[in-house]
Amino acid sequence: MNAYKFLTADGKGVLTGFAWPLPNGGAGEWVEAEVELCRSGVHACRSADLPYWLAPVLYEIELAGDVAEAGMKVVAPRGRLVRRIDAWNDETREAFSQMCIARAAELAAQAPDLVGSWAPPPAASAAGPALMGYIAARLGEAISGVQGYVDERGRQSAWLADRLGLE
Fold first, then answer.
1. Closest by alpha carbon to 114, among 152, 147, 144?
2. CA–CA separation, 71 vs 91, rounded Å?
3. Are strands 2-7 and 57-64 parallel, antiparallel or unpaired?
4. Nearest CA to 50 among 4, 97, 83, 105?
């Protein structure tokens, strides 16, 4: 199964700090780990999960073995990075942030009595796309409940998949 994995700029896991063998003209080396959800295993995400895991660099990852689907992620005993998704770059991160800022403003304008006035935080783009996506989703939730949050994350997933040329 192919999925996606966000890493730091130097190729490390955002939460674990694990240094991934990066692809260099071909797929990277296989990484193996016993699967224990949220503790060990090779964790990745599907395109629908992307906005929950945003980080500086995005790779396509090949997963092998029994792949478990768990909420907003997938976990397998083996994985290797296949290629870097170059379309996830400074320009796309900024465009995503601006899309989320605009969407948050739309949502706030739809229900000013409920969410009050909203303006992007100072230096919103510097705060990053993950925060901007979260803010828009939380405003959706404030207006429409949990389904509003899910809908906003779905909108973000579709935007990312389209812009990044993903399945």
1. 144
2. 29
3. antiparallel
4. 4
Specify whether the CB–CB gap between 41 and 75 falls below 8 A. Answer: yes
Query: What is each CA distance from 38 to 41, 74, 152, 162, in whole angstroms?
Result: 8, 10, 24, 28
Using the 8-state DSSP alphabet, how is residue 12 labeled?
B
Query: How long, in residues, is the chain?
Result: 167
Kindly report the pTM of this predicted structure: 0.91
Specify whether the CB–CB gap between 28 and 81 falls below 8 A.
yes
H or E, element range at 8? none
CA–centroid distance for 139 within its chain: 18
pLDDT for position 124 = 66
Mean pLDDT of 131-140: 93
Helix (H, G, I), strand (E, B) or coil at 94: helix
DSSP, collapsed to helix, strand or coil, labels residue 128 as coil
- Write the single-letter amino acid at 129: P
